[in-house]
Design brief:
Length: 519
């Protein structure tokens, strides 16, 4: 055992000397300053309140199941089925699985690689004799076969002195976090698409009912004019004008039926079914409640919207990639070892005299690589700057989306109320005109004008109600409704770090994902 001890001591001395040499080379490099942490400002001014919203600091964020506020069981069933059956959501979940697997692959570089090797080699070597033939050549004396057996464990480990492998792992972990937020973005988009398609169906149903009612009213007026025409108190022009109104109302029905049926097909795709397997009982927009929604504080939006959180996670991944690219300028220190048994006879393979081992330490310092490492570093820095701008854009877009949605909710609510007044006044005018037409005390031009105004006002009211519902849905979407982020996990916009250690997300708080998070 003494030779083994002496070899091990010599190996320790060699490793110590190699490590010291590597440190000396690294400290002498002019690029050593690249490892310092850099903090860049996000340069985003967070408003204290939304310009178009209530100035209430205690306003509540949207509920996780905000769509139930519309008080429609059919809509709730469609949305909840879409969350479990939508193909885009399922694809987003599959991307989460891929991202988790990629993080496990990257994390393997932080652990030793151990292989078990076993082999048997049979070889034949020629034996020669000293006798010479007639021509003086050496004559062969035959061959001797031999077999060698060996079994060994080999291990290698790269010392992650500069954090290169840890940064690579951090980059993939942040991408795994981003994939979860991407799933939430897809889910929220799916919810909004289902709600909008359903409301368009209700609007088409209401407009169909209005169009059919207007057709019946126009036909009733036509019959009155026809009676007057038959007795000679109305002209052929009067009859033709009313006939044109009836034809226009009849022609407005097929496009509305088309909208109704096509939105059924759209809903079928969103819930993962074929259109033939979907049955939707469209009722009326009048049965849909308008849920109250308060925007809260603008600072809450940064932690609430999944697209902003996804952009930040991608930026954190880019930060880690920059750290990894920096570390590639510095030496790589690798430890390798092989130990096992080797013998020419199988029966003596596992005996102490058959033991062998090799230990080695290596250091590799890049010197000339044609600019590959520098190019990769510049690439990662450029990618980091790109994602920084996209992160800033996501924040600003979030604020703008909420402002636009708040304005739309306010103005569409006002429009609906005003349009209801228009419908009420035009209906009274039409009823009076129709009554006087029966009495023969009004001219037909007045009747035509009042009925046309009523038909248009009723259809405009239905469209205004649809726009109001879509505006409310857009506000929930702009506020990131559908999941709640923990309040102590909100990103800090005042200081946006470049280093991967500065941005982290507790994965146990991530929403609605039942899977394994690698560590």
């Amino acid at each position: 055992m003494r030779p083994f001890v002496s070899q091990r001591s010599a190996l320790r001395g060699s490793v110590r000397r190699l490590t010291a040499a590597g440190l000396a080379v690294a400290l002498a490099l002019p690029l050593a300053g690249c490892l310092s942490n850099e903090i860049v400002p996000a340069a985003i001014d967070i408003p204290k309140a939304y310009r178009a919203g209530p100035r209430n600091a205690d306003a509540a964020l949207p509920s996780v199941v905000w769509w139930r506020g519309f008080r429609s069981k059919e809509l709730t069933d469609l949305i909840e089925e879409a969350l479990t059956s939508n193909f885009d959501v399922a694809a987003a979940v599959a991307r989460i699985v891929q991202a988790d697997a990629q993080s496990r692959i990257a994390g393997s570089a932080l652990l030793p690689i151990v292989d078990l090797n076993a082999d048997a080699t049979r070889s034949v070597s020629s034996r020669t004799t000293g006798s010479r033939g007639v021509l003086g050549g050496v004559q062969s004396g035959g061959s001797s076969p031999s077999t060698d057996y060996a079994t060994a464990l080999s291990a290698s480990y790269e010392i992650d002195f500069w954090g290169k492998n840890r940064a690579a792992l951090r980059a993939t972990e942040e991408l795994a976090v981003a994939s979860r937020f991407d799933r939430e973005v897809v889910a929220l988009t799916t919810i909004v698409s289902v709600a909008n398609s359903y409301f368009q169906m209700l609007a088409a149903h209401d407009r169909l009912a209005i169009a059919r009612g207007n057709l019946a009213a126009a036909t009733r007026v036509y019959d009155l004019i026809k009676q007057r025409f038959d007795v000679g108190t109305a002209s052929a022009l009067d009859l033709a004008q009313q006939e044109s109104v009836v034809a226009q109302q009849r022609a407005s029905i097929p496009p509305l039926e088309q909208i109704l049926r096509q939105n059924v097909a759209t809903l079928a795709v969103l819930i993962g079914r074929t259109p033939a397997a979907v049955r939707v009982r469209a009722t009326s927009m009048s049965q849909i409640a308008i849920p109250p929604v308060t925007p809260g504080l603008p600072s809450d939006l940064i932690g609430q919207r999944p697209d902003i959180r996804e952009a930040e996670a991608q930026l954190a991944s880019a930060n880690a990639n920059v750290h990894n690219a920096r570390a590639q300028f510095f030496p790589s220190i690798t430890l390798t070892g092989v130990g096992g048994y080797q013998s020419s006879a199988l029966r003596t393979l596992m005996r102490p005299e058959s033991v062998f081992f090799n230990l080695a330490a290596g250091l590799v310092q890049p010197v000339l690589d044609g600019g590959r490492i520098q190019g990769n570093f510049d690439l990662q820095k450029g990618r980091q700057d790109e994602l920084l701008q996209l992160y800033r854009k996501a924040i600003v877009n979030g604020f703008a989306d909420v402002e636009r949605a708040l304005i739309a909710v306010q103005q569409t609510a006002r429009r609906v109320q005003l349009q209801r007044d228009v419908v009420a006044s035009t209906r009274r005018a039409f009823e009076i005109a129709e009554t006087r037409l029966r009495e023969g005390t009004v001219d037909l031009v007045t009747v035509l004008n009042t009925q046309t105004a009523l038909f248009q006002a009723q259809d405009a009211l239905a469209q205004a109600q649809l726009e109001r519902l879509i505006a409310v849905v857009a506000l929930f979407q702009a506020l990131g409704g559908g999941w709640q982020a923990p309040r102590d996990d909100r990103p800090k916009v005042a200081e946006l770090p470049r280093t991967p250690q500065e941005i982290s997300f507790p994965v146990q708080d991530l929403p609605r994902f039942q899977g394994h998070w690698p560590r």
